[in-house]
């Protein structure tokens, strides 16, 4: 039988798919076959003198300066609009907090007044005062007051978003420092609000334990012994004290918020502003009490 030549390993017919898939090494390795990375426009003609050379360099330099100036102008305008929008957001939040603080203070005053009545009833029962004062019903505002009086923690959303996004750098350092101090007062209010909520839970637990119906939370103080009445009075006074701390820090935030809205960002000026507002508040009740007292000076 005739010997058949074995096909050489690695060879492929010219028309086979494998041959078509083989890379064209000559084409890929040649400089002419690759696309240029940068399209450079050469000079139409080479400069024949130093004057033409420097004129060409000056033209390039002026073009680059114009491009950089336009880019910086756009960036400056963009940052300017962002700064305006940030200040508008911060001021709108400050005005909203100013509006809410008044209602929050009135709400806390009503809670403290209820604590005073409840404490008076509990201590009067412990001393067997006759006639015995009734323990007040659980604190609850009517629908008309509830729409007007409520406690809301001051908002710091705009400042938090600006701080987390890094847009605080748009503000001057003194202005950013003023808002940082204001945020500190806001965090203090939040901390004491959490303490107020804990005191609420503790008072509710004592009232429920001493009530016939724990769901109602209305102790019959006439049936309680001295130890139970003291427990109730202590829970009430803790509740009253925590409300006082919350209100104190809320008023500090109110004054700091007013200072920032008035453009006072410096630490010393803000501290003086807060001191003046606190001093005016302390003098107001004394002045009102002195006007209410009848005059003992004889008329001539």
Shape, please? rod-shaped
Query: How is the quaternary structure best described?
Result: single chain
> What is the chain-wise order of helices and strands?
HHHHHHHH
- Overall mean confidence score, pLDDT: 80
Decide which structural class fits the backbone.
mainly alpha
How far apart the termini lie comes to: 159 Å
What percent of residues adopt helix (DSSP H or I)?
A: 55-70%
Number of helices: 8
The residue ranges in which pLDDT falls below 50 over 5 or more consecutive positions are 4-32, 36-40, 292-300
Number of strands: 0
What Rg, in angstroms, do the CA atoms define? Answer: 40 Å
Largest sheet: none
Strand fraction: under 5%
Give the SSE layout.
Layout: H1 17-21, H2 25-29, H3 50-126, H4 143-148, H5 157-165, H6 173-209, H7 226-261, H8 267-292
Describe what you observe in this structure.
The chain is an all-alpha fold and 300 residues long. The protein has a domain at 68-159 and 167-278. It is built from eight helices and no strands. It has helices spanning 17-21, 25-29, 50-126, 143-148, 157-165, 173-209, 226-261, 267-292. Helix 3 packs antiparallel against helix 5 (157-165), helix 6 (173-209) packs antiparallel against helix 7 (226-261) and helix 7 crosses helix 8. The longest helix has 77 residues, at 50-126. The radius of gyration is 40 Å and the shape is rod-shaped. The chain starts with 16 loop residues before the first helix and ends in an 8-residue tail after the last helix.
């Amino acid at each position: 039988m005739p010997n058949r030549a074995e096909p050489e390993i690695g060879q492929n017919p010219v028309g086979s798919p494998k041959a078509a898939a083989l890379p064209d090494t000559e084409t890929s390795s040649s400089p002419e076959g690759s696309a240029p990375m940068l399209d450079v426009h050469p000079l139409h003609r080479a400069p024949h003198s130093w004057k033409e050379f420097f004129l060409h360099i000056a033209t390039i330099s002026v073009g680059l300066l114009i491009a950089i100036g336009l880019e910086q102008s756009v960036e400056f305008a963009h940052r300017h609009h962002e700064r305006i929008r940030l200040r508008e957001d911060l001021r709108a939040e400050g005005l909203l907090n100013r509006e809410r603080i008044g209602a929050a203070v009135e709400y806390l005053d009503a809670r403290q007044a209820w604590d005073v009545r409840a404490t008076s009833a509990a201590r009067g029962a412990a001393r067997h005062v006759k006639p015995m004062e009734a323990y007040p019903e659980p604190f609850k505002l009517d629908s008309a007051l509830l729409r007007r009086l409520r406690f809301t923690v001051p908002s710091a959303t705009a400042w938090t978003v600006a701080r987390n996004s890094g847009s605080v750098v748009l503000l001057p350092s003194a202005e950013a420092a003023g808002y940082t101090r204001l945020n500190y007062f806001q965090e203090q209010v939040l901390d004491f609000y959490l303490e107020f909520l804990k005191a609420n839970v503790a008072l509710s637990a004592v009232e429920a334990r001493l009530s016939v119906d724990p769901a109602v939370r209305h102790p019959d103080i006439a049936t309680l012994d001295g130890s139970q009445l003291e427990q109730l009075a202590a829970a009430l006074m803790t509740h009253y004290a925590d409300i006082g701390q919350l209100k104190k820090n809320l008023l500090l935030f109110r004054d700091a918020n007013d200072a920032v809205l008035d453009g006072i960002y410096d630490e010393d000026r803000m501290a003086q502003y807060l001191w003046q507002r606190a001093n005016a508040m302390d003098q107001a009740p004394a002045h009102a009490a002195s006007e209410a007292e009848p005059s003992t000076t004889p008329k001539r």
